[in-house]
């Protein structure tokens, strides 16, 4: 009997020990597990304006060990491409092998060999894509590869801890493709509508919404910001810029707008539906067929960060500038000689300064109906050449360009644009100057 009760006591004490040690494990485990599996709700990267080229440049860390890279931001770019010929050293570089899942994700056709010693960008039995310098319109072939990439998470107000994607897909490119890009950059960061551009790769790596937002700064000395994931998008002094968005549909151009592409490939760029243009209250008479995308992919309106200024097809340019000059003349604003690349310039003599920039006629892009307007005030329409001269920051794109209206970087500055890939919708704020903030007001001081 005694031995039976001893056995029972022993069994119950073992059970007690087991259950209490499991309890202790349970209490300890969640915190360490949470640290390992921290999943960010959003990511943030800085974007600066290069004074010499007027290109927008972002910074991210890639490779093992990590190397900080400067990259020209290309809103409609198809993927990340980097120069792999110069100083590409990484223990985690892996080329994508022919017919692999990576190749199909990158829509990479064909299968190539390399006829020199293996190195990043030059390996046998790999698939290739066409990295595109969209500033110069030059494209070449490049090896698809993957490597580690790290970026800061955010709660929308500050950067948080750094997170990594261990196998981020990108394309190698030869050094010559960097010609025409800002000094010191290593490639281009594509945010376009493909499965391997930054927004889709980040969304699938961290299981967040396929949304991202850009906020370009007008300053060449302070950073603007790009968010991947949903808002809030908070700018000092504690203004959530995502609360002041109007929405318009995004359209897919069925024909690629890249420098080189395969037949049947749609464009990776972001198009919106401009129905008409107004200067103040007056509708500008334009050929409205130019405002739609035709079956060959011509026409329509796209948003671009590689064009420094908005480019208008020549007949639209003439109509808009004539209407603008007439409205300016009614305010006693005098026209002066043009200053390249601008055709339409004015004396600053009768131009008052306001919170929204020079007080000039307002340009409205009328979207899906008369109540949805993209308003372009003086801060985004006028470029100061000197104290005495300011010019309308729109350029003539000539006859029969591929896209009738290309909204360029200057017209996007200090405006929050949110691209929602899942619902194919653009959210856009009017100028943030109206809310007493700017795109350089994101607080890049990290939270621990």
Automatic annotation (TrEMBL):
Keyword line: Secreted, Signal
One annotated Gene Ontology cellular component of this protein: extracellular region
GO biological process, one term: proteolysis
Keyword NAD in annotation: no
Subcellular localization: Secreted, Extracellular space
Keyword Signal: yes
Cited CDD domains: xylanase_inhibitor_I_like
Peptidase A1 domain span: 56-429
Predominant subcellular localization, coarse grouping: secreted
Signal sequence annotation: 1-34
A molecular function GO annotation: aspartic-type endopeptidase activity
Superkingdom, taxonomy of origin: Eukaryota
Pfam families for this protein: TAXi_C, TAXi_N
Family, per entry: Belongs to the peptidase A1 family.
This protein's name: Peptidase A1 domain-containing protein
Species in which this protein is naturally found: Juglans regia (English walnut)
């Amino acid at each position: 009997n005694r031995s039976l009760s001893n056995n029972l006591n022993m069994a119950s004490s073992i059970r007690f020990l087991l259950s209490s040690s499991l309890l202790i494990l349970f209490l300890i485990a969640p915190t360490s597990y949470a640290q390992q599996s921290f999943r960010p709700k959003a990511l943030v990267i800085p974007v600066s304006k290069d004074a010499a080229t007027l290109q927008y440049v972002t910074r991210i860390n890639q490779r093992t060990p990590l190397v900080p890279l400067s990259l020209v931001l290309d809103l409609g770019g198809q993927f990340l491409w980097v120069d792999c010929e110069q100083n590409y050293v990484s223990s985690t570089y892996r080329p994508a092998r022919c017919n692999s899942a990576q190749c199909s994700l990158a829509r990479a056709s064909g299968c190539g060999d390399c006829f020199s010693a293996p190195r990043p960008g030059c390996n046998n039995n790999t698939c290739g894509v066409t990295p595109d310098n969209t500033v110069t319109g030059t494209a070449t072939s490049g090896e698809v590869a993957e490597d580690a990439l790290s970026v800061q998470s955010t709660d929308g107000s500050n950067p948080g801890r750094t997170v990594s994607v261990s196998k981020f897909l990108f394309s190698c490119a030869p050094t010559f493709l960097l010609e025409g890009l800002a000094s010191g950059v290593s490639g281009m960061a594509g945010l376009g509508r493909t499965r391997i551009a930054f927004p889709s790769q980040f969304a699938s790596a961290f299981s967040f919404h396929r949304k991202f937002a850009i906020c370009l700064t007008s300053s060449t000395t302070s950073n603007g910001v790009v968010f991947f994931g949903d808002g809030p998008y908070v700018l000092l002094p504690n203004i959530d810029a995502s609360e002041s968005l109007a929405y318009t549909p995004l359209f897919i151009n069925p024909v690629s707008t890249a420098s080189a592409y395969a037949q049947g490939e749609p464009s990776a760029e972001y198009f919106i539906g401009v129905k008409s243009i107004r200067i103040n209250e007056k509708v500008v008479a334009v050929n409205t067929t130019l405002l739609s995308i035709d079956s060959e992919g011509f026409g329509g309106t796209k948003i671009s960060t590689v064009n420094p200024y908005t480019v208008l097809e020549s007949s639209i340019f003439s109509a808009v500038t004539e209407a603008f000059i007439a409205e300016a003349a009614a305010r006693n604003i005098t026209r002066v000689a043009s200053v390249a690349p601008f055709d339409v310039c004015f004396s600053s003599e009768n131009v008052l300064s306001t919170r929204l920039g020079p007080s000039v006629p307002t340009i409205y892009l009328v979207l899906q109906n008369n109540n949805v307007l993209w308003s372009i005030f003086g801060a985004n329409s006028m470029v100061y050449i000197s104290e005495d001269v300011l010019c309308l920051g729109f350029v003539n794109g000539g006859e029969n360009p591929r896209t009738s209206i290309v909204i360029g970087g200057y017209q996007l500055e200090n405006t929050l644009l949110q691209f929602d890939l899942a619902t194919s919708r653009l959210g856009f704020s009017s100028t943030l100057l109206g809310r007493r903030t700017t795109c350089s007001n994101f607080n890049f001081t990290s939270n621990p």
